[in-house]
Structure prediction request, 908 residues.
Amino acid sequence: MRQKKYLLGESEIPTHFFNMQAVMPNKPLPILNPATREPLKAEDLYPIFCEECANQEFNTTDEWIPIPEELRQMYASYRCTPLVRAYDLEETLGTPAHIYFKNESVSPAGSHKLNSALAQAYYAKKQGITNVTTETGAGQWGGALSYAASKFGLECAVYMVKVSYEQKPYRKSIMQTFGAAITPSPSMSTRAGKDIITANPADNGSLGCAISEAIELAVTTPGCRYTLGSVLNHVCLHQSIIGLEAEKQMEMAGEYPDIVIACFGGGSNFSGIAYPFMRHNMKEGKKTRFIAAEPASCPKLTRGKFEYDFADEAGLTPLLPMYTLGHKFKPSSIHAGGLRYHGAGVILSQLMKDGFMEAVDIEQTESFKAGILFARTEGIIPAPESCHAIAATIAEALKCKETGEKKTILFNLSGHAFVDMAAYDQYISGQMQDYSVTDEELQKFISAADALNR
Amino acid sequence: MRQKKYLLGESEIPTHFFNMQAVMPNKPLPILNPATREPLKAEDLYPIFCEECANQEFNTTDEWIPIPEELRQMYASYRCTPLVRAYDLEETLGTPAHIYFKNESVSPAGSHKLNSALAQAYYAKKQGITNVTTETGAGQWGGALSYAASKFGLECAVYMVKVSYEQKPYRKSIMQTFGAAITPSPSMSTRAGKDIITANPADNGSLGCAISEAIELAVTTPGCRYTLGSVLNHVCLHQSIIGLEAEKQMEMAGEYPDIVIACFGGGSNFSGIAYPFMRHNMKEGKKTRFIAAEPASCPKLTRGKFEYDFADEAGLTPLLPMYTLGHKFKPSSIHAGGLRYHGAGVILSQLMKDGFMEAVDIEQTESFKAGILFARTEGIIPAPESCHAIAATIAEALKCKETGEKKTILFNLSGHAFVDMAAYDQYISGQMQDYSVTDEELQKFISAADALNR
Prediction:
């Protein structure tokens, strides 16, 4: 019988996170206080994030950061995740390429997000924090944090964009099942929310507003800290366990990837699968290609600009050096909610600038076409975000078919779509559309960020 | 690190199905032609089911039936499934019992149903069948068959009860994503459907009608066969791979179950986890208890009667000797759609009668209370059906807490609830109700079946 799945036992769960910041040749530019333009230090973030996460954010020296045993034990409920050889997809495409995927959809929360949620909840608990808070749009991160908080006995409050709260009741129910308190945002529970409701009682909410509410709750509530599910260095650090496991599993399969692919929103699942392999490019001259698959409607890597910008729409955060479409850019309402973000993480942006990775943009309908082919061949209905990685994988596999090259392609299946079937329904019934964005439109929003860089 | 998951590689996927009919001391009574009262033979079922499945239905001699290599290869996309020690549930309950569960929710279709769907699709394909059909209510079986048909290149037509088609669009989308054609039933595509629509154009459909339409399609379409997801002997046979894997995994854990628990609709997931262990009770005098957890609103095992009855509401099928509430019994609209069936499988009914297993009934709200505790401790949101098994497990674990006994309990987690979150929402918001059924009501429906036994 040909082997499909490469499994690792619990004892093989990584003992250390891999810290890309310690290895990359050019360190990221500093994060700036927008008022003073002074570089921020870890201590500046202590009121918002728990201390260990803030310290990790700025750690440019330690290549390996130990994973505490209690946290490894929590990972054991779903890790190590399987590495799978996609034979049936290969055969259907008729490609000589070997396609592997790392299956992060087996996590209790349905996506890779839990890897960082558990870490952030663990460090918060260790510090004596009692409450964590965050915002959520599509709900993947909110669901993961709710579960992680429940496992570590923390109270969890999630501000959910009002329109998502009403349109995605199942995501809300998942978070509530895990015991979290969900508040539609804008709400009357914060100054930021009150101001918005007072100005417009019918406001439907936005991720920017939900972030403001969650941060306000964190800084005004004793024993409460804010958490974030992507973009930041410490989040990408936690995700490195994906690639570290995959490295061992590829070895079990007797192969090494020529190409590594992941979808790209803020960069957390991309970092997770890519960093551990990328270090061999840096250290040993390996030639693996790393491809970020972003939505055509939110093309920060392929068409954005590398400069300082705010991480949030409202402009409340520090200034981050990143590939950005401008923090006021409003991505079209594609179903891949996790990819609707204007900027790329700081480390990732530097790696992109330095040529260690590349990016492609994928139209929404192309992504779902790929997702359905994957479902029918490999049996897992991929999350709308993951469909982008699959589309990019199929494109590379078909190039191999043309050239006859037998490349080894590894992609990250970041999550499943059981709670996103409305999106598939729209595609199958022929109702789905693509969203183009003109250079003029992009330039308008990028100009606003340009102003911050003068 | 304490071990949570016991994993088996693909080479450990069972090579044979275990056939309880060959081992049980009293064979089941014959299945009867309702018109002639003559026992049916396998050949009588060839026009409806594929031949291998019909043969397996009547096989009382071969204890082990080889699993073809091509089918094992298909199982490898998700099997072997993990056996998990529920440490956190144990600790939260404060029980000395050791609780293990077999996690069938990791299947691409989200439940154990795929084990038989793949087998039935494989045997159909081997026979040269080109189309398979079935009915579905809640949609778990329809989803599994759609996926299995897609893997073996068969056309798949699913008649979905009209009210479910409209109220459960996500299940429909899952089946369509896997490439099946879904028809709301009653439909104009069959004589049976036309008659019902003509009589009542607003008819919302029923499982009975959908069965009639699917069977009619099968017997009137060249190269088409009907499939069923539970109750029948060959379906339970295919599910035996669950328990065969669990047997090896319990050995890896160094334990043997004192109690085995599964939820009970027609009996397929119960058979799967129970039969392989039960054979040791029969052959070697082991004393494991086997507990079927059925809904209080559909209590065929705890309050039904063992006698001949039809398998469908309309009375079109052969007569089966089984524990039944009467084929006209209409179960309340609990969320555990897979448990809303009036009868128990033929083998299972005989085993129940002979004292090899026992049953408990569980109220709907009790089942969801257990499901939420499980989600918060073990991280998986269980299907409404599986919640019944968890409630029964918790009851046994709490008995151990009282007596101080350190029993080993194994239950089957038949599926996850990502597509059933509306049910959790109803429970969390306090809107869920229980459904009692009086002895008088039950007697009314059972009497109808009594008439068939004179």
In short: Residues 20 and 275 of chain A are 6 Å apart (CA to CA). The mean pLDDT of chain A is 95.
